[in-house]
Specification:
- There is one protein chain.
- The protein is an alpha+beta fold.
- It has two domains: about 80 residues, Winged helix-like DNA-binding domain superfamily/Winged helix DNA-binding domain (Arc Repressor Mutant, subunit A, Orthogonal Bundle); about 50 residues, 2-Layer Sandwich (Dna Ligase, domain 1).
- Helices cover about 50% and strands about 15% of the residues.
- It is built from six helices and six strands, in the order ααβααββββαβα.
- Helix 2 packs across helix 4.
- The chain is globular and about 50 Å long.
- Belongs to the Fur family.
């Protein structure tokens, strides 16, 4: 889907749900959609400053907060980067496979039975999960092949 179509879809969703989808929020989301890779807030700021020279960090952080709150993007805790969801917005945050060499990020589905099992295991430990952010680090297939010599 093109970035313009994606942004329009998010804009329509926000209108239907009475959410304020500002031009800055749209610009940040467009940057993430165009790059299709995990970016830091400062990576996003640098790209946004190419379009709007006087953009300051709080502008980006406010946009990211909104986009996170309504599940248009996902925060990668281990590297403080952001990635757009591969499903239609808004999406359910997915477990992530993170390559420690090339830093690529792949979202994967988690079966409902595994989610239930994790909740039950946590409950047996007297722990209640309220946020499921699963990040698995390792080597992607491309980096594994690069190591074979």
């Amino acid at each position: 889907m093109s970035t313009a179509n994606y942004i329009q879809r998010v804009s329509d969703y926000c209108s239907q749900n009475k959410l304020k989808f500002t031009p800055n929020r749209a610009a940040v989301l467009a940057i993430l959609h165009q790059h299709q890779q995990a970016l830091s807030a400062y990576d996003i700021l640098a790209k946004l400053q190419q379009q709007q020279q006087n953009t300051k960090p709080p502008t980006v952080y406010r946009a990211l907060d909104f986009l996170l709150q309504y599940h248009f993007i996902q925060h990668i805790e281990s590297s403080s980067r952001y990635i757009i969801g591969h499903q239609h917005a808004p999406f359910t945050p997915q477990p992530l496979l993170i390559c420690t060499d090339c830093k690529s990020v792949t979202q994967i589905g988690l079966s409902e039975s595994l989610k239930i099992e994790l909740d039950q295991f946590a409950g047996q430990q007297g722990f209640k999960l309220h946020s499921q952010s699963y990040e698995f680090q390792g080597l992607c297939s491309g980096c594994q092949q690069g190591q074979v010599s």
